Amino acid sequence: MTTAYRKFWDNLLNFSGTATRSEFWWPLIINYILGGLIITIIQLVTGHPIDDIYNWSDWSVNTMSNLIAFIVWLGVLSLKFRRLHDSDHSAWWLLINLVPLIGGIWFFILMVLPSRPNRWQ
């Protein structure tokens, strides 16, 4: 679990190569849990939602949260590329998410497929 999460951060901008199922799912689960906890703590401390800006301190917290969210989004995007490569699919399959409902289900199926020998290793 910790090695998969460390590998997620080490390969933040690596859009080639592969990522196994555990290397894909553990970082996603950990990021959702950490994100939820951090947002809850910030909202409890400030007393209002993180998107509401009342002073400069709120603005800086909002800016930092948006920057961190962008960095994590970029890491997850590269992780999705590597996971698709591991199941021997092109990263273009990521665009299947644009198809309403069916695309999300199909992409989930692609993410749970087992690893296969492929051209990206």
TrEMBL record:
Q: Name one GO cellular component term.
A: plasma membrane
Print the keywords alphabetically: Membrane, Transmembrane, Transmembrane helix
Q: Does the keyword Aminoacyl-tRNA synthetase feature in the UniProt annotation?
A: no
Q: Where are the transmembrane segments?
A: 24-47, 59-79, 91-113
Signal peptide: which range, if any?
none
PANTHER family according to UniProt: INNER MEMBRANE PROTEIN YHAH-RELATED (PTHR34980:SF2), INNER MEMBRANE PROTEIN-RELATED-RELATED (PTHR34980)
Q: What is this protein called?
A: DUF805 domain-containing protein
**What taxonomic ancestry is recorded?**
Bacteria, Bacillati, Bacillota, Bacilli, Lactobacillales
